[in-house]
């Protein structure tokens, strides 16, 4: 099949027999109708519908040589720079359709990471993991499964390695080997979209030592597996999803994050992709984080487009859109937005092949880290400028239920209106869209901590930039040293993944 419609995805996750999913202390039986999770389902659904819609289908589907047919790009392996560029463009475009995070990127990046890592293991004589992975990715592509990627452990005491923790389950680990598989225990935190996926791909979250070998494990399981528990986290303005309105919670598509608890879960051997190969854990994290940091160029610039458009419309509604100071703020927002996007494209075009076969094309790690580091800053400034343009009403506007109350509707319409071309309801709609989009986990908190906190990117950039070579160039030009004989254009060191 290779391609599912959005409705087919929805039907596929409707019922759970084994997994326990909790929202605000209550167990959820049907995630597709639960008012708290339905916005996440709709956002995920958009990634499936995109493969059939005229304005996105050329980006959202791609031929896979693994299954010999077109598949959803979110389940594809990257073969060259054109695939990575298409990734960034698709993410930007999908943000225009959802106004939020659509939650499918982490699983996609996990697939591409594991292709490289398992291929490396195969070249070292451990071919079983690569065979397991290739069978798995073929199944994912044929069934067009929705995946969550789970990397971040709860970590316990941050200064201690996994094997040193007072709570040995602070990192996901293997607690038992059996003939039919391994039993894993632990928890993964802040897992995007976890309650509404078909399957979850689990990966280690850090470099490890030999003492940590039982924590060096990667595998995939259906979410609906015995022993799996999900506790969905809260977000800003999340109660608006439960109110039954159609304005205050705009755009009514949202992402969610959750705590994934693996309570002695059996993972069959054919779904294990890494086990006890602790030396590979660091490379896996480096490959994955660079993939994921590159992708932020697309989704965050797409949300930036939404915020810029909303700010411009609100300026029009109060008659100030053409004022020079408003135009200057909008131009600054555009500059910041396009800068994030451009670095993601650079990370794509400047990538390289790390593994042979129908996958294995990686991003440029320096530019991927630069991309994400810009994302940790620029969305906050874009939001600040949008809030400046929109005015204080962004945080004080009446509820839609006030507008719908016949006793005060006429007064709300009279005093909330700006220029006559726009109604009070239109102004309230745009205010709520801007509020819920620009003050959100998807645009702000995720921009800082998703794919690693700012310090993680700074560490990566410091490792990758060869400051000694730059110094040699400067010394030569200052008449203090010899001419630098180096074919490199950029003074960048090889990453650990490239060295290997």
The outline comes out as globular
Please state the average pLDDT score: 97
- Helices, by number, come to 17
SS content category: alpha+beta
**How many strand elements?**
14
- Characterize the quaternary organization of these chains: single chain
In terms of DSSP E residues, the strand content is: 5-15%
Task: Write up what this structure looks like.
- This protein is of the alpha+beta class and 500 residues long.
- 46% of the residues lie in helices and 14% in strands.
- It is built from 17 helices and 14 strands.
- The strands form four sheets. The protein has a six-stranded mixed sheet with strand order 2-1-10-11-7-6, with no helix packed on it. It has a four-stranded mixed sheet with strand order 5-8-9-12. Strands 3-4 form a two-stranded antiparallel sheet.
- A hairpin with a 2-residue loop joins β6 and β7 (181-192).
- α4 crosses α7.
- The longest helix is centred in the middle third of the chain and has 39 residues, at 279-317.
- The chain is globular.
- The chain starts with 5 loop residues before the first helix and ends with a helix.
């Amino acid at each position: 099949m290779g391609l599912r419609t959005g409705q087919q995805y929805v039907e596929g996750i409707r019922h759970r027999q084994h997994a326990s999913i909790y929202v605000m202390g209550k167990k959820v039986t049907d995630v597709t109708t639960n008012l708290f999770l339905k916005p996440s389902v709709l956002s995920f659904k958009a990634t499936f519908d995109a493969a059939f819609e005229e304005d996105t289908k050329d980006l959202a589907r791609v031929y896979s040589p693994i299954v010999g047919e077109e598949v959803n790009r979110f389940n594809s392996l990257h073969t060259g720079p054109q695939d990575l560029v298409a990734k960034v463009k698709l993410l930007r475009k999908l943000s225009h359709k959802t106004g939020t995070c659509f939650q499918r990127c982490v699983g996609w990046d996990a697939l591409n990471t594991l292709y490289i890592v398992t291929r490396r293991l195969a070249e070292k004589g451990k071919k079983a993991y690569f065979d397991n992975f290739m069978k798995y990715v073929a199944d994912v592509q044929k069934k067009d499964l929705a995946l969550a990627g789970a990397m971040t452990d709860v970590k316990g005491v941050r200064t201690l390695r996994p094997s040193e923790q007072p709570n040995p389950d602070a990192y996901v680990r293997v607690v038992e080997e059996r003939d039919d598989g391994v039993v894993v225990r632990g928890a993964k935190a802040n897992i995007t979209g976890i309650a509404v996926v078909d399957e979850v791909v689990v990966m280690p979250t850090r470099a490890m030592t030999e003492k940590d070998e039982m924590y060096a494990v990667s595998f995939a399981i259906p979410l609906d597996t015995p022993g799996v528990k999900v506790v969905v986290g809260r977000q800003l303005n999340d109660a608006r999803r439960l109110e039954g309105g159609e304005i205050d919670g705009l755009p009514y598509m949202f992402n969610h994050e959750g705590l994934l608890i693996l309570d002695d879960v059996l993972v069959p051997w054919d779904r294990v992709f890494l086990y006890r190969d602790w030396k590979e854990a660091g490379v896996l994290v480096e490959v994955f984080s660079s993939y994921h940091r590159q992708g932020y160029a697309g989704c965050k610039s797409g949300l930036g487009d939404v915020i810029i458009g909303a700010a411009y419309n609100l300026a029009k509604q109060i008659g100030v859109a053409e004022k020079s100071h408003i135009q200057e703020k909008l131009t600054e927002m555009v500059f910041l937005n396009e800068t994030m996007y451009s670095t993601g494209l650079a990370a794509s075009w400047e990538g390289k092949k790390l593994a042979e076969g129908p996958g294995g094309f990686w991003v440029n790690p320096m530019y991927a880290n630069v991309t994400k580091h810009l994302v940790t800053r620029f969305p906050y400034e874009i939001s600040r400028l949008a809030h400046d343009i929109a005015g204080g009403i962004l945080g004080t506007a009446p509820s839609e239920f006030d507008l719908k109350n016949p006793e005060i509707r006429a007064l709300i319409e009279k005093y909330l209106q700006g220029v006559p071309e726009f109604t009070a309801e239109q102004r309230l709609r745009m205010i709520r869209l801007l509020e819920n989009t620009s003050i959100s986990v998807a645009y702000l908190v995720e921009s800082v901590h998703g794919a690693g906190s700012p310090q993680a990117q700074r560490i990566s950039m410091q490792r990758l930039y060869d400051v000694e070579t730059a110094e040699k160039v400067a010394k030569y030009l200052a008449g203090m040293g010899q001419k630098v004989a180096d074919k490199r254009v950029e003074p960048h060191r090889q990453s650990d993944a490239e060295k290997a």
